[in-house]
Amino acid sequence: MPNATPYTEKILGQFEPASLRGDPPAALAAADVTIDAIYSTPLETHNAMEPHATIAQWDGDVLTLHDATQYVYGVKQFVAKTLGIPDDRVRVISKFVGGAFGSKGSAWSHVVLAAMAARHVRRPVKVVLTRRQMFGPVGARPYTVQQLTIGARKDGTITAITQDVASSTSTIEDWVESSTLQTRMLYDVPSVQTRQRLVRLNLGTPTFNRGPGESSGTFGLESAVDELAARLAIDPVALRLKNYAEKDPESGLPFSSKSLRECYAQAAARFGWSRRNPMPRSMAEGDALLGWGMATATYPAKRLPASALARLTADGTILVLAATHEFGTGTYTSMSQIAADALGVPLSRIRFDLGDTDYPENPISAGSMTAASTGPAVHAAALALRDRITSLGARAEDEAGCRALVAGTHEAIEGRGTAAPGPEQKQFSMHSFGAVFAEVRIDPVLGTVHVSRIVGAYAAGRILNARTARSQMVGGIIYGIAMALHEHTAIDGRTGRYLNADLSEYLVPTNADVRDIDVIMIEERDEHVDPIGVKGIGEIGTTGVAAAIANAVWHATGVRVRDLPITLDKVVKL
User: Edge-to-edge strand order for the sheet containing 144-152?
Assistant: First the structure.
């Protein structure tokens, strides 16, 4: 079944697969130095611990679905359309999604099949995918092959970049992995050309995977920039600062905020970058080769329309409802905090609920959009409720007075709020930024690679909760370690079968693979991005990590690995 939801159509409809500014051929011909290389990333399967699962139950002609989904309203609309029934006869509930990473953002075939089976047998039906069924039917990060060419002057001024990306899709849908977007805006380069094309394979349709596009795209771009720094004998951080973009060079718009300089400075200082010997194979610790590498992280700050309801209840607590989603990233907590702050009441008086299409509509929880979309709607609903309480002669912070107010009226005391992107979307370029520094230790005989420490500094607007934000960043960095060293969905070229469709053969990091991770959150105020100044942090932690590790591997060994994952056979040249 095609992976098609309103969100998919909306986002992909905004993506142009080709871009051009300046005159790249002429700029490359005039360049003092050029880098021309191919970088590739493999098919990667999400492999959340919690597999996809759906319970379908019919009550007459009304269908209730308990589904592990990142988009309850998307499932509602898709299933209703597929079954040919009105939207109002489908209710979707998802109180806790579990791991998803993009894979649960679409209504896949098993959801509709559960509904069809339940209608046929006239009783509830539960469908839980096996681990092997997680490979293929519910999406993956597609293959990418990226040819990058960079031209520069001897002083490090980059004059041209071209990036041509081929990515895989299925035979039934044109899924584009937008791996060129960061190349268009990250550096102040006058001549840039990017192109994307699709290769159809007899595999399942790809889908969003944490940091879709930018995770694979930054591996190519930031590896190529590191190669340029080595060729010019310029420090990798200094080269990036030399080509720092003060405004978006693609759109010409100012950034709503940008604290990337601070990210470079603070992460480099914490890491001890000034002690790096730039020559490959020049640093060691005991018998291990030591390598230090870095890369830039970035992800766009996006949001979609959302709505929320805040209601004063008889016991004085405030119920806030929005049909958003919880993965374990802290949505219950952060939305409760936003409501409490707006109302001026203790957090203990807020009860936030989500994940139900009986609640006000919200967009998919993907693309780092939940806080930026739902947060302003919750804030608006809380302010509306506060004003309503005040108009009735009470104060929201007076719990006893609020209880008396509810007892004395037969009407619901509530406030509704909506939030949507406005003209600021055409006035500013909105992105989160970061800098990632990685240290690797490599056995010179065996070629085994261990990431011994990572320091990442990130500027992502207002941070709602420091603890959950750090957890998100650490998780994203671990995802990047997996991308660099472990993940690879192996396909039998003869049959198209998945060869490693289980967690014993599909490698992901374990505790032994994850050492010291140090996260710095740069304080950043953004008055333009949305009413509460939030950019979102779910994806940016993954971007740049694979490149930083690959660059560190080169520094340790002198071997440039351009094909992920970095395995010992690629490090030890026989």
Answer: 18-21, 191-200, 158-169, 144-152, 33-41
pLDDT in tens, 457-486: 999 999 999 999 999 999 999 999 999 999
Cα separation, 477 vs 517, in Å, equals 8
- Do residues 77 and 111 touch, judged by C-beta distance below 8 A? no
Active site residues per annotation: 539
Longest alpha-carbon distance in the chain? 83
Give the pLDDT score at 526: 96
Residue 517's nearest CA partner among 317, 307, 337, 267 is 267
554 alpha-carbon distance from chain centroid: 27
Answer yes or no: are the C-beta atoms of 254 and 265 closer than 8 Å: no
Confidence of residue 16 (pLDDT cuts 50, 70, 90): confident
What's the CA angle centered on 93, arms 87 and 98, to 5 degrees? Answer: 135
Strand partners, 459: 433
Q: In the structure encoding, which two tokens stand for residue 129, read together?
A: 């995918």
pTM: 0.96
Q: Which residues contact 566 (CB under 8 A, 6 or more apart)?
A: 449, 484, 485, 549, 550, 553
**What is the rounded radius of gyration, in angstroms, for the C-alpha atoms of the chain?**
25
Residue type present at position 264: Y
Q: Which residues have a Cβ under 8 Å from the Cβ of 460 and sit 6 or more positions away? A: 301, 432, 434, 469, 521, 524, 535, 536, 537, 540
Distance CA 416, CA 308 (A): 6
pLDDT in tens, 477-533: 999 999 999 999 999 989 989 999 999 999 999 999 999 999 999 999 999 999 999
The verdict on whether omega for the bond into residue 565 sits within 30 degrees of 0, i.e. cis, is yes
3-state secondary structure of 333: helix
Give the distance, in angstroms, between the CA of residue 214 and the centroid of all CA atoms in the same chain: 9
Query: CA-CA distances (angstroms) from residue 468 to 70, 139, 198, 454, 474?
Result: 19, 27, 37, 19, 10
DSSP classification of residue 461: B
- Would you put residue 531 in left (φ > 0), alpha (ψ -120 to 50) or beta? alpha
Helix (H) or strand (E) holding 273: none
**Dihedral sign, Cα of residue 201, residue 207, residue 210, residue 214:** positive
Tokens for 175, please give them: 């899924």
Return d(Cα 455, Cα 463) in angstroms, integer. 19
By CB atoms closer than 10 A (0-12, 13-18, 19+), residue 121 is exposed
10 Å Cβ neighbour count for 374?
30
- Order of strands, sheet of 125-128, starting from the edge strand that comes earlier in the sequence: 90-93, 62-67, 53-59, 125-128
Give CA torsion, residues 55, 58, 62, 64, to 10 deg.
-10
Query: Which position has the token pair 């009226």?
Result: 409
